[in-house]
Specification:
heterodimer, A: mainly alpha, PX Domain, Substrate Binding Domain Of Dnak, Chain:A, Domain 2, 2 domains, two-stranded antiparallel sheet, 64% helix, elongated, B: mainly alpha, three-stranded antiparallel sheet, 10 helices, phosphatidylinositol-3-phosphate binding (chain B), PX_dom_sf (chain B)
Chain lengths: 385, 402
């Protein structure tokens, strides 16, 4: 199929390197206006499937597009986590010079979590939706063939099997197979990215631990509050004139308990998963950096081998030239993706942290309303009743 | 309210000081002394301040005063002292009597005690109380000279011993039951409140860790850095705010504690009535049996079994003279007993009347005070919520600038 850019320019996709460098030279980043955007993907409607062998959840993936790469303007398919995982692996294989967004964790290690609970499924749905949207927004990844099939195929399993067969037939895979070359030193800018990612992961890990600790402390606080409120009620039962005020305080504390429970739930469902996603993101990015190092190492090794031959050949062998191309493309792709990633990261965290602040504000507002509403009850004189 | 001492005199417990001295067993000990300052309230027109009198008292002297008042006015719900040892503490508060925060709260409690006594229509007129406030030397001797310890009924110490009263006053029984329940529920409330405070402290303090990590993170960021850094500062403010919040709440706990101890004072009045009723019934019973004995001796009929009666039957009757003598003694005792019973009845009726008057006064005071305490607690919670909203709104603004 011929790919063409939104402005009509045809693109040569015969070699992965050329497509990415061409596309990246154009300013296709996330600040697209809605009008220029031509691909919309949503993940929703989780459904449970009970089969003899297993029980699993599928999600509806809806696509709306005007791109020529798609036969129809709309698609609706059902996919399960396995399929998303397959897609991600395929993207990593076929677009090794790019940063592939992370998926939510595959296995739920903490035994207490129910894989089929509403909260867990919803959290996962949001993460899968984010995953596809990030790919959609990427100028190269969104045109990936596997992504297209993922969005459109009625029977994805058939395609998966076909892909495996093709792979075994072909002697060479699209992978950048580089064998054991050691890089002497990372160029400064990539070293800086590496350092940044290391510190970034560390800090996020710390924030994750703090957030978890806060939730734990809040739940323990909630346990005590749940005992505290009813004691006022018991007391109210002993009294005559103080009966209503004491009942009022008891009910008020009950309302605060509800508000606190909601806050902890929100933090668990909305805040922690996004943090963890970014930690996974950073990890996969570090791996891409390593791959880049490998490609550069191969190039440098081959270049050195040529230099050692001491032949006065002005022409550099094509073999080495290809390596040089690869390094340059990798570097360009990575740099562009890094910039895009940094921008997205800033927006994501801005939204995430503002959301956290918002939830806390809402919690305090609910409690404030509860306490303010009982002041008139407490001040009420029996004569006025 | 009649003109009670509180209206004529300003009373404060203004200072607390650590002292060392030798106690009754000549052992060196450390204790805290409290400065009581008093000043006559001048009429507004004069515009000059009268001089302040002051003297030092230690906790044990306050205890002595209260014991004296309890014994001397058994029908009065005597205001309680602040706790002797720190109880219901949450982990950050010290249980140490020498801890400055504890001493400070005790100082306030002692002042409150004096003001309560000074505003009580009956207790404020007591001379021993007045001397406690104004006479430094020789006060202890003065109290002991009243001989109040002799009046103290040792049976009152056995709090849970039951005295089988045949005709209990229903009102007092109900009131005693109420005071038991009140003590139980307030203790429970104070215990849970302390745990709640502990947990809340934990929640706030952990947020302080955000401050540090945001700061560290901001160091590697370009555009996000400032927003993160300033948000982190607000997290520190949030974490620090809990100390003042919980300190203020201690005041509420102290108000509850006062009524926990007041419940005990209320129970004591019921107990005293119970004993009084018991003594009355015993005296009446004794009188009845003496009258019966007298009758039997006079008529020669034995209506009730008595060992004496049996032995005299077995070993021979008494002489008429002996019998006469016995009857005379009994008649005297009966007369005494009847007079005693009359005065006991009168005493009992007076007790009930004045006790109920004070109990009604106490009920009104309790309802008023506890309502005020609940209002101030609600106000504290409102203030805490507003502070929370403020801090998170500030943090949100910092995040929005990321």
């Amino acid at each position: 199929q011929d790919l063409s850019l939104p402005n009509g320019t045809p693109v040569d996709t015969s070699s992965p390197a050329s497509s990415s460098s061409l596309l990246n030279r154009l300013q296709l980043d996330d600040d697209l206006d809605v009008e220029t955007r031509d691909l919309f993907v949503t993940v929703d409607d989780p459904k449970k499937h009970v089969c003899t062998m297993e029980t699993y959840i599928t999600y509806r993936v809806t696509t709306k597009t005007t791109r020529a790469e798609f036969d129809l303007p709309e698609y609706s398919v059902r996919r399960r986590y396995q399929d998303f995982d397959w897609l991600r692996n395929k993207l990593e294989e076929s677009q090794p010079t790019h940063l592939i967004p992370p998926l939510p964790e595959k296995f739920v290690v903490k035994g207490v979590v129910d894989r089929f609970s509403e909260e867990f499924v919803e959290t996962r749905r949001k993460a899968l939706d984010k995953f596809l949207k990030r790919i959609t927004d990427h100028p190269v990844l969104s045109f990936n063939e596997h992504f297209n099939v993922f969005l459109t195929a009625k029977d994805l399993n058939a395609y998966k099997k076909q892909g495996m067969a093709l792979l075994s037939k072909m002697g060479e895979s699209v992978k950048y197979v580089t064998g054991g070359y050691k890089l002497r030193s990372r160029p400064l800018e990539f070293a800086a990215i590496g350092d940044y990612l290391d510190t970034f992961s560390l800090k996020l890990g710390t924030i994750d631990r703090i957030a978890q600790r806060i939730i734990k402390e809040q739940l323990e606080y909630l346990v005590e509050l749940r005992e505290y409120g009813p004691v006022y009620s018991t007391w109210g039962g002993l009294e005559v004139e103080l009966s209503e005020p004491l009942e009022g305080v008891s009910a008020c504390i009950g309302n605060c308990c509800t508000a606190l429970e909601e806050l902890s739930e929100d933090m668990t469902e909305d805040f922690l998963p996004v943090l963890r996603e970014y930690i996974l993101y950073a990890e996969s990015m570090k791996n891409v950096l390593k791959k880049r190092d490998q490609v550069q190492a191969e190039y440098e090794a081959k270049l050195e081998a040529v230099a050692l031959k001491r032949e006065d050949r002005p022409k550099v062998p094509t073999d080495v030239e290809k390596c040089q191309d690869r390094v340059e493309c990798f570097n360009a792709d990575l740099k562009a993706d890094m910039e895009r990633w940094q921008n997205n990261k800033r927006q994501d965290f801005r939204q995430l942290l503002m959301g956290m602040a918002d939830k806390n504000i809402q919690y305090y507002e609910k409690c404030l309303t509860a306490w303010e509403s009982i002041i008139p009850l407490l001040q009420d004189k029996p004569e006025t009743k | 309210m009649e003109d009670c001492l509180a209206k004529k005199m300003e009373i404060t417990v203004s200072e607390a000081e650590k002292r060392t001295g030798r106690n009754a067993m000549n052992i060196q000990e450390t204790y805290t002394a409290y400065l009581i300052e008093t000043r006559a309230v001048e009429s507004q027109s004069e515009g000059q301040c009268s001089p302040v009198d002051s003297l030092w008292r230690r906790y044990s002297e306050f205890e002595l005063l209260r014991n004296y008042l309890s014994v001397t006015y058994p029908h009065i719900v005597v205001p309680p002292l602040p706790e002797k040892r720190a109880d219901f503490v949450w982990h950050k508060l010290s249980a140490d009597n020498m801890d400055p925060d504890f001493v400070e709260r005790r100082r306030i409690g002692l002042e409150n005690f004096l003001l309560r006594v000074a505003s009580h229509p009956v207790l404020c007129q007591d001379k021993i109380f007045y001397a406690f406030l104004t006479q430094e030397g020789g006060w202890k001797e003065m109290v002991n000279e009243t001989g109040f310890q002799l009046k103290a009924d040792s049976r009152l110490k056995a709090l849970n011993a039951t005295f089988r009263v045949k005709n209990p006053d229903k009102r007092f029984t109900e009131l005693k039951h109420y005071s038991d329940e009140l003590q139980s529920v307030i203790s429970h409330l104070l215990r849970v409140r302390a745990r709640v405070a502990d947990r809340l402290y934990g929640v706030y303090k952990v947020h302080g860790n955000y401050g540090r990590v945001f700061s560290e993170w901001s160091a590697i960021e370009k555009e996000m850095g400032d927003g993160l850094q300033s948000a982190g500062h607000h997290m520190d403010v949030y974490a620090a705010s809990i100390d003042d919040i919980l300190e203020e709440e201690e005041h509420y706990a102290d108000q509850l504690k006062e009524y926990l101890f007041y419940a005990e004072a209320l129970r004591a009045v019921c107990r005293k009535h119970e004993l009084m009723q018991y003594d009355l019934e015993m005296a009446a019973q004794d009188l009845t049996s003496k009258k019966q004995q007298c009758e039997e001796l006079a008529t020669g009929t034995v209506r009730t079994f008595s060992l004496k009666g049996m032995t005299s039957k077995l070993f021979g009757q008494e002489t008429p003279e002996q019998r006469e003598a016995k009857i005379k003694v009994l008649e005297e005792q009966i007369q005494e007993g009847e007079e005693q019973l009359k005065s006991k009845n009168l005493e009992g009726r007076d007790f009930v009347k004045s006790a109920w008057a004070d109990i009604e006064r106490f009920k009104e005071q309790k309802n008023h005070d506890l309502k005020e305490a609940l209002i101030s607690y609600a106000v504290m919670q409102i203030s805490m919520c507003k502070k929370g909203i403020q801090v998170w709104t500030n943090a949100k603004e910092c995040f929005s600038k990321m």
